[in-house]
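PROTEIN–LIGAND DATA SHEET

This sheet pairs a single protein chain with one bound small molecule, flavin-adenine dinucleotide, given as SMILES. Inputs appear in the order they were entered. The predicted three-dimensional arrangement of chain and ligand is reported afterwards as a token string under its own label.
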Amino acid sequence: MADQNHAAVETVESLIDDELLTRIRSRAATHDRENTFPEDDLRELAEVGYLRMLVPVEHGGLGYGFARVAREQTRLATAAPATALAINMHLVWTGVATLLGKQGDHSLDWLLEEAAAGEVFAFGNSEAGNDLVLFGSRTRAVPTGDGGYGFTGRKIFTSLSPVWTRLGVFGLDDSDPEAPLLVHAFLDRGPGVETLDDWDTVGMRATQSRTTVLSEARAPASRVFRKLPAGPSADPLIFGIFAGFEILLAAVYTGIGQRAVELAVEAAHRRTSMKNGGRPLAHDPDIRWKVAEAGILQDGIPPQIQALATDVDEGVPHGAAWFPKLVGLKVRATENARLVVDQALRVSGGSSLANSSELGRLYRDVVAGMFHPSDGESAHATVATSLLGPVPEPGSE
Ligand SMILES: Cc1cc2nc3c(=O)[nH]c(=O)nc-3n(C[C@H](O)[C@H](O)[C@H](O)COP(=O)(O)OP(=O)(O)OC[C@H]3O[C@@H](n4cnc5c(N)ncnc54)[C@H](O)[C@@H]3O)c2cc1C
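PREDICTION REPORTED AS:
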């Protein structure tokens, strides 16, 4: 067992000390089994300032950049992937507001101050069958005449459902059919906002990403923060949401991979072989290859996340190359994490099939990575267009 010390132990500076990480890890299996939101995790993380990480110091936050926050999210995800994924939503909103502020757009400064004061921000953007994602909406946004809007529609996968206090939504205002607008706003809980109890998935269960039904839910003028022409947009808001999501999603799923490597190493030391006189499988060349394969795959991603996150933090002008870079990172990280978990399962053997197995849970959680925007199809279309140019309309060649 002394060999276990051979696994590389990295000491990282983190808001989450080892004791807090252990407490969060100890609760993860229960929230997964009971399909409940990890309220204790959220409370303890808020206490150490986790929800204020991306809020600038002058607004009462910790002033971290995406590079630091990505490292924190990877560490948190090694203990509780669903907790990390749910909190991603809040972190992305605060990151968006900070990026806009850096560019002189202070329309979301109020969000930074509210986040510093303890409000929890969620994303109510996804809609069934909306593969235009941020460039179209099935939700109706109807002007109320005083600068505010009433939103009617169904938002799916609203993570943080039991606990959010501010919900970012968007919908289509087609009151001028010649110039339809996508209207972005924040809602409070209240009349017209209903959370269904319909989250029962195989993985990422503790995110409690339930359906939100909006029935003329009112956002006052002060909470309407963007109106963009329907269709693709290069608005800094879209860039901020996109960059924040792709980087922090990559960070969360990379945390799953990191934990899978740790569990593979433990399993290789724990399991023994009768064929080889009771020696641990850690001495078996085939098992060593698999553990090494997982390690090789895992090792490549964190530096990629750090590099791109630092570019976002420093405002490096990648221009049109930003989108292929960001989707590429998200796809590489989420797909890579699946491959790492797969190797770890092979090392760990059949016990990981048990519902009580942590690795079994990681196997269920890691699969969710492929569904987040940009999904494989959308990401490959983005990169293909960047490399090959757009496909011409039929007949235009
Ligand atoms: C764990 C997790 C957490 C997430 N958290 C958030 C979040 O907090 N906020 C957020 O905005 N998004 C969130 N997302 C949502 C994500 O961004 C995607 O929108 C989501 O995965 C849906 O993907 P899909 O379109 O492939 O699903 P699909 O399976 O294609 O569709 C989802 C549902 O819509 C129905 N549907 C599909 N097409 C149609 C149609 N044409 N007409 C009517 N119904 C249709 C399907 O039957 C299904 O019930 C989360 C996703 C995951 C996996």
